[in-house]
Design the sequence.
């Protein structure tokens, strides 16, 4: 179980094998190759963001579980067609964006850019649809537990979509800089992809909970 | 090949102005965290002195309005948790992790600096609430009390401050996990990592997973407070108990965020001054991870009287009892480390051993609290106040002090005065126990917590407690004086004055900006003491 | 066997026995608990004393080892060598995993047992009142209990007895009879706590929580609010008067029956059966 004296012997034995590595390190000292850890870090960040939504989802489910009637009596029926169309658009946009990764890996920056712009457009349509739906709803944030949870959940999600659109726009702008994105190094593209799929995934859960399962 | 200090170019000590800038050097950031949080510790400590002044007499007679007293203990606790312990330990993590794993800096140096610079504005937000009437609902901020319109501004400031601090904590954790996972020197596998690194790894995972749930709870509370929603408002159909679940889902793991790094520090310090390997390295590492995981399924032991159903109380009682086992393993391992060693009773060692001693008391009262029938009597009383201070002060704060005494020479290139360090230790130890030991009895006999007034029968014990509290307050002074004086004028320190074996001791004191001239290759484990007469500088080969 | 080893073992054994004896004594004589005023307090105190014995023993043992180490293992001046390179011991580590696990299991079983006997109440759980259809019914009245509605508000207590409409500012209960309190709040969270009875229950606005207990000794016992409820939380106190059954009946007739002549009396729920 514990580190025995053998452990330290093992380290001493291992040392000669890393002589080569040591030489390499010595010469590489001033300009050490750092592996790009940003995607690792960004993934951890998304784990945290996921937990934020988990907390809000659990709150919603808790309210729903103990309510004698859910949605509460008097809540207007939620229109499902528009949000369903929005869902299709958002899910499709993830597939669209995914093409950008293949493009950048081939070095096709204009192609990558095109996929990004298409996704941005689809995201914008989603947001517009969301705003339109908000204007059509007969209840507000202050309308009891349902109004509160509905607007907080969809609102925070919408905020994340907006951030995603901005992130993607940032990538598009950056892509005009020569050699900024290469087939080997394109953190921004990967991060935007990951973020967008995350936002998409959250929406699927949200849509099912709020509109389908009710 | 042996490395001695004069093979490194001793860099001149950093210009003090650097510490007030956006600097990406993890060592600077570490010190920024530590100094900032210590200043806030003094503020929080001052508030504690006010509390003990009020409780010298049974009547509520110190503050013009009793609501102010509630504000004082609310801000006291909020500071001590979010502006003292969590950032102070993040400061140690920032300073030590890259050095201990043979890296030149953290994975994301700029995000590291951003995370720190969120702290001063958050502190200003919280402190400013005293001008508007601070939040008065306790650091737990339970609705409906926390939604009182009378404290709207103070509560809003509290909420924004805590949300900002949670975000800072998460950013730090992203850095720690990435750095530890990806940036160790190749010769350092996970079973060769120092235990402080293990502790920070476990802690950071907790931070990443738990903190956002608090953010969610506080966001919903903010909406209730400011936007007229009814999530936790019973008059609108909301549920105050749901807030408690969301709050404690974070806040219980939060106590492990505050203790695991301290345990890691102690695991580093005891072997150095006992000249003996840490006993049960793997068990301690695994227990840190176990505590991190188990810590997520014990939260409702804070809610045994909140109207939780019996089956839930039994479940959380059992999980809370179980978590005592990995904790106990650590305690026995530390005792076994010290047993049979060659103890050098420096201030660092005194505080580290004091940690073990005091933490045992807190742990034992914790097991009592885990028992539902007993908790029903003592929850929300001074018994809990006793317990939490034994683990957070006798535990975490003692570990912080031990860490400061131990690594001060490394960080500043100067020695702290050892005699004043011992004065600090003994006065702290006595003041601390005088203050918090009688609180167990007060709670059992019937004194609730968060009260400005109490039954006259509790007078004698409260006077004893307050006396201890004032002594504890005064005991901070020798430490403060020692640190300030020594930082400016203390005797110069060598690279490895304590003959430690972890990698930070192979660098000069203070280390150069890039930490290592050449990245080290391990030849010796971090706790490989026990070779009579061995030259302690033989730690690495290049 | 050499004398030194025998001596060490005998001395250690004596210390062990001393620790056990001190712990047993302290567990029963700590003076930490208030008067036992209810059946619940008897059970809870017994559990507490057991836990205190175990805690004291562990405390003395660990602190003893630490203090002993402080003196016995101090590095001698001039000695610059290290201590022995001991990294661990599987048997020892198994032992100090197994024993705490066993102790924790023991204490859990004792606690589980006492908790079951207490059946003190609570509420229906998340979001629910005591009559919530979703979860277990809590401390349901069987008809023999005295039922009192306790109304908590910032910063005082009022009581309304089942079958009577008068709200009074004093709580009287008869010794030896089960009492169920239905706890209600008019504003924020409060908590009903009678230290002498060892039972406590949060009072949650918007729902009814419930507590069940049986007082055993006549006397006056403080009732304290045990959940931060605002500026005057510290003085939100009252008194529970535990009376002899006859005295209690007299009090009921005097204080409660007075104003309820016009209220149709529910068949004597307060009368002793």
Sequence:
């Amino acid at each position: 179980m514990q580190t025995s004296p053998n452990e330290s012997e093992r380290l001493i034995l291992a040392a000669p094998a890393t002589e080569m590595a040591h030489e390499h390190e010595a010469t590489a000292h001033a300009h050490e190759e750092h592996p790009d850890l940003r995607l690792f870090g960004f993934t951890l960040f998304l784990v945290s963001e996921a937990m934020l939504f988990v907390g809000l989802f659990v709150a919603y489910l808790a309210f729903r579980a103990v309510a004698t009637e859910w949605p509460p009596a008097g809540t207007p029926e939620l229109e499902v067609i528009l949000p369903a169309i929005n869902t299709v658009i958002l899910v499709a946009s993830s597939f669209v964006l995914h093409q950008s990764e293949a493009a950048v890996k081939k070095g096709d920056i204009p192609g990558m850019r095109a996929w990004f712009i298409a996704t941005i457009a689809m995201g914008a349509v989603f947001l517009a649809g969301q705003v339109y739906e908000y204007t059509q709803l007969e209840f507000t944030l202050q309308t009891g537990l349902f109004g509160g949870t509905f607007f907080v959940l969809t609102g925070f999600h919408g905020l994340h979509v907006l951030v995603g659109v901005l992130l993607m726009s940032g990538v598009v702008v950056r892509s005009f800089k020569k050699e900024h994105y290469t087939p080997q190094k394109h953190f921004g593209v990967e991060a935007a992809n990951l973020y967008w799929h995350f936002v998409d995934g959250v929406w699927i859960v949200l849509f099912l909970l709020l509109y389908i399962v009710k | 090949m042996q490395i001695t200090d004069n093979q490194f170019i001793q860099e001149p000590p950093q210009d003090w102005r650097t510490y007030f800038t956006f600097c990406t050097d993890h060592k600077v950031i570490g010190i920024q965290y530590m100094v900032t949080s210590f200043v806030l510790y003094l503020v929080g400590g001052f508030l504690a002195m006010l509390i003990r002044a009020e409780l010298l007499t049974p009547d509520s007679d110190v503050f013009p309005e009793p609501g102010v007293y509630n504000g004082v203990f609310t801000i006291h606790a909020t500071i001590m948790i979010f502006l003292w312990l969590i950032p102070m330990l993040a400061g140690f993590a920032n300073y030590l992790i890259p050095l201990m794993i043979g890296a030149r800096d953290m994975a994301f140096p700029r995000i590291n600096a951003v995370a720190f610079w969120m702290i001063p504005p958050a502190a200003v937000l919280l402190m400013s609430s005293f001008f508007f009437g601070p939040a008065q609902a306790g650091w737990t901020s339970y609705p409906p009390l926390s939604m009182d319109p009378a404290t709207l501004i103070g509560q809003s400031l509290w909420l924004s401050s805590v949300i900002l601090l949670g975000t800072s904590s998460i950013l730090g954790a992203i850095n720690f996990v990435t750095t530890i996972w990806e940036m160790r020197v190749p010769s350092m596998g996970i079973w060769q990592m120092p235990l402080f690194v293990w502790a920070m790894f476990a802690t950071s995972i907790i931070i990443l997973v738990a903190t956002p749930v608090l953010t969610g709870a506080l966001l919903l509370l903010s909406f209730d407070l400011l936007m007229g929603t009814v999530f936790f408002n019973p008059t609108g159909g909301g549920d105050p108990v749901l807030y408690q679940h969301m709050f404690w889902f974070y806040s219980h793991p939060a106590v492990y965020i505050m203790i695991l790094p301290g345990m890691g520090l102690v695991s580093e310090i005891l072997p150095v001054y006992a000249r003996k390997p840490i006993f049960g390295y793997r068990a301690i590492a695994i227990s840190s991870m176990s505590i991190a995981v188990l810590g997520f399924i014990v939260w409702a032991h804070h809610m045994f009287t909140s109207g939780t159903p019996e089956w839930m109380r039994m479940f959380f009682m059992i999980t809370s009892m179980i978590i005592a086992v990995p904790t106990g393993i650590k305690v026995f391992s530390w005792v076994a480390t010290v047993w049979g060693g060659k103890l050098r009773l420096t201030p660092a060692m005194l505080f580290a051993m004091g940690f073990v001693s005091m933490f045992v008391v807190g742990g034992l009262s914790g097991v009592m609290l885990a028992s539902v029938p007993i908790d029903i009597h003592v929850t929300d009383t001074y018994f809990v106040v006793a317990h939490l201070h034994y683990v957070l002060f006798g535990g975490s704060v003692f570990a912080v002090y031990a860490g400061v005494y131990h690594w001060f020479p490394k960080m500043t290139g100067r020695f702290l005065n050892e005699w004043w360090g011992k004065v600090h230790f003994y006065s702290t130890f006595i003041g601390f126990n005088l203050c918090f030991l009688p609180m167990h009895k007060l709670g059992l006999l019937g004194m609730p917590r968060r009260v400005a007034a109490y039954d006259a029968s509790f007078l004698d014990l409260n006077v004893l407690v307050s006396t201890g509290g004032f002594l504890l307050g005064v005991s901070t002074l020798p430490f403060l004086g020692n640190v300030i004086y020594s930082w400016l004028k203390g005797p110069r320190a060598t690279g490895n004055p304590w003959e430690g074996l972890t990698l930070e001791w192979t660098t000069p004191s203070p280390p150069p900006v890039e930490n290592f001239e050449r990245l080290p290759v391990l030849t010796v484990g971090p706790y490989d003491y026990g070779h009579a007469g061995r030259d302690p500088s033989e730690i690495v080969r290049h | 066997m050499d004398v030194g080893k025998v001596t060490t073992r005998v001395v250690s054994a004596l210390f062990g026995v001393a620790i056990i004896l001190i712990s047993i004594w302290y567990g029963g004589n700590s003076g930490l608990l208030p008067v036992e005023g209810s059946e619940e307090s008897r059970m809870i105190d017994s559990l507490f004393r057991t836990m205190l014995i175990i805690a004291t023993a562990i405390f003395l043992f660990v602190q003893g080892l630490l203090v002993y180490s402080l003196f016995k293992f101090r590095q001698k001046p001039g000695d610059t060598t290290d201590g022995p390179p001991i990294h661990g011991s599987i048997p020892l580590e198994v032992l100090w995993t197994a024993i705490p696990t066993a102790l924790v299991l023991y204490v859990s079983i004792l606690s589980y047992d006492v908790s079951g006997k207490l059946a003190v109440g609570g509420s229906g759980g998340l979001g629910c009142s005591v009559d919530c259809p979703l979860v277990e019914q809590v401390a349901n009245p069987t008809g023999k209990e005295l039922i009192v509605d306790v109304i908590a508000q910032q910063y005082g207590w009022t009581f309304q007895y089942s079958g009577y409409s008068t709200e009074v500012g004093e709580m009287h209960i008869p010794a030896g009879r089960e009492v169920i309190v239905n706890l209600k709040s008019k504003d924020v969270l409060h908590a009903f706590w009678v230290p002498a009875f060892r039972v406590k229950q949060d009072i949650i606005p918007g729902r009814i929580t419930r507590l069940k207990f049986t007082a055993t000794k006549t006397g006056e016992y403080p009732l304290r609010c045990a959940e931060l409820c605002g500026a005057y939380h510290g003085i939100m106190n009252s008194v529970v008067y535990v009376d002899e059954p006859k005295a209690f009946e007299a009090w009921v007739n005097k204080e409660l029956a007075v104003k309820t002549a016009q209220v149709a009396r529910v068949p004597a729920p307060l009368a002793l059966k």
The interface with chain C takes residues 1-5, 7, 62-63, 65-68 of chain A (CB under 8 Å). The longest helix of chain A spans residues 144-175.
